[in-house]
Every structure is written in C-alpha cells, then in structure tokens.
Amino acid sequence: MKVTLTNFDKAFENRIRLQIMSVLVANESYDFNSLKELLDVTDGNLASHLKALEKEEYITVNKSFLGRKPNTRYVASALGVQAFKKHLQELENLIRQQRG
Questions:
Q1: Pick from 14, 85, 86: which is nearest to 50 by CA?
Q2: Could you give phi then psi for residue 30, rounded to 5 degrees?
Q3: 3-class SS of residue 68
C-alpha cells in the first residue's frame, strides 16, 4: 500500500514546532522562557519556530510587562488547534495503514 502524505501540515514537520503546538494545545498559554526551558532549545531556535507558527496564524503572541520585566506569552489559535488536530489524525491514519 502506498503511503500518501498530502494531508500532513508542513508547519508541523519540524519536531520543535510539533512540540510547541503540543504544549500550547494542552495549556491555555505558555511564556517564552518556560517554553525554552521545557523544550531545551536556544532563544534563537525557539524564536524562529514561534515566528513560523505565528506566520501561519497557528499561534497568537501576547506581550506584556510583569513589573518592569517584559513577558511574551503564546496561545494556540483556533486555526492552529484545528490544523494540529488534523495533522495528528493523519499521523494516526498512517499508523493504522501500516498495521494493515
């Protein structure tokens, strides 16, 4: 049986973006430093993946201050949650196909 990947979302092909979305779908929001620590990635690496997800409109960014310190929080958008769930469904379909 031939495997088709046409319904997979390219935005989630990278493991870090997949992890970011997993965290954001499971939580109401997450801040930059907590995501960085949880995923064990550098500032620049995390920032570039967050920017890619923001460009797809899969996440929203909320910037604020906690006292005098800037705080950036990320939230999965409705579009992002829908796209992520569709991607996961396609992964499950692929696994089922392979079990025959």
A1: 14
A2: -150, 140
A3: coil
Cα distance between residue 24 and residue 8, in whole Å: 19
CB 46 within 8 A of CB 32: yes
pLDDT digits (tens, 9 = 90+) for 31-81: 999 999 999 999 999 999 999 999 999 999 999 998 999 999 999 999 999
Residue/partner pairs of 57-65 with CB below 8 Å, 24 or more apart: 58/11, 58/21, 58/83, 58/84, 59/20, 59/21, 59/24, 62/29
In sequence order, what are the beta bridge partners of 31? 73
Is the distance from CB of 50 to CB of 16 less than 8 angstroms?
no
| Nearest C-alpha neighbor of 39 from the set 22, 64, 52 | 22
The span from the CA of 69 to the CA of 98, in Å, is: 50
Please give the residue that has the higher pLDDT: either 55 or 4: 55
* Whole-number Å distance between alpha carbons of 25 and 27: 6
